[in-house]
Amino acid sequence: MSFIELNSVYKKYQTGEVVITALDGVTFSVEQGELCIVVGPSGAGKTTVLNILGGIDDCDDGKVRVGGELINNYNSKNLAMYRRHDVGFVFQFYNLVPNLTALENVELASQISNKALNPTRVLERVGLGDRLHNFPAQLSGGEQQRVSIARALAKNPKLLLCDEPTGALDYATGKQILTLLQETSKETGMTVVIITHNQALTPMANRVISMRNGRVQRITVNDNPLPVEQIEW
Amino acid sequence: MTRTYLKSILRSVQSSFSRFVSIVLIIALGIAFFVGIKATAPDMRNTAQDYFIDCNLMDIRVQSSVGLTDDDIQAIMNIDNAIEAVLGQKFKDALVLVNGEIEKDIDGTQISTRVYGLNTGLLANYLNYGVDEAVYMNRPRLIAGEYPDNENECLVDASALSTPDSYQIGNTITLVGDNEDLRASLTQNEFTIVGIIQSPYYVSFERGNTLIGSGKVGTFIIVPDTVFVQDYYTELYVKIAGSDSYDPFSNEYRNYISPYIGMIKAVAPARLEARVEYLQNTLPSKIADAEALLNDASASAGSQVEELKSTIKSLQESKTLLAKQLAQAQETYNVTLADAEEELALNRIDYDNNMTEYNKLLAEYQTSSAALAEQEAEYTKAYAAFTTKYQEYQKNAQTLADAKTKVASTERLIAEAEGIMQMLENRQNDQVTSDEMASIRDFLQATNPDLYESIIGSTTGGLASEMVTYIQPVLKGYQQDLIVQKAQISELDQKLKQAEPEIESTKITLETTRRQLDDATVQKNASYNTLLDYSTKLSSAGADITSTDFQLSLQKIQTQMMITELTNQLNTIDTNLTTAQAALQSANNQISGILQEATGSYQQQIDNAKNLLASLDNVYWNIYDRYDTPGYSSFSSTTQNLEVLANIFPIFFFVVAALVCLTTMTRMIDEDRTTLGTLKALGYDNRVIASKYIIYSLSACLIGCSIGIAMGMYVFPFAIFKAYSIMFTIPDLQYVLPVGSVVIGIVIALTCTLVATLVALRKDLSEVPAMLMRAKAPKAGKRILLENINFIWRKLRFSSKVTARNLFRNKQRLFMTIIGIAGCSALMLSSLGMYNSVSAIRSRQYGENSISHYDFQIMFEDPQDGTSGEYKTVANSNSVSSTLLISMKSVTGYSLRSDAQMDVYLMSPSDPSLLADYITLQNRQNGKMYTPSIAGALITEKFARDTNTKVGDTVFIQTSDSKTYEIFVAGIVENYTFHYIYISPDYYAEIFGEWPAYNYCLGNLTDVVRASDASTLASLKGQMATKLMAVGGIQAVSFNSDVNESLSEITDALIAVVAVFFISALILAFVVLYNLTNINILERTRELATLKVLGFLDNEVNSYVLRENLILTMFGTAFGMLLGILLHYLLITYAEIDTVMFGRDIEWYSYLLSVVLTFVFAAIVNALINKKLKKIDMVTSLKSVE
Question: Contact, B213 vs B176, CB < 8 A?
Answer without folding.
Answer: no
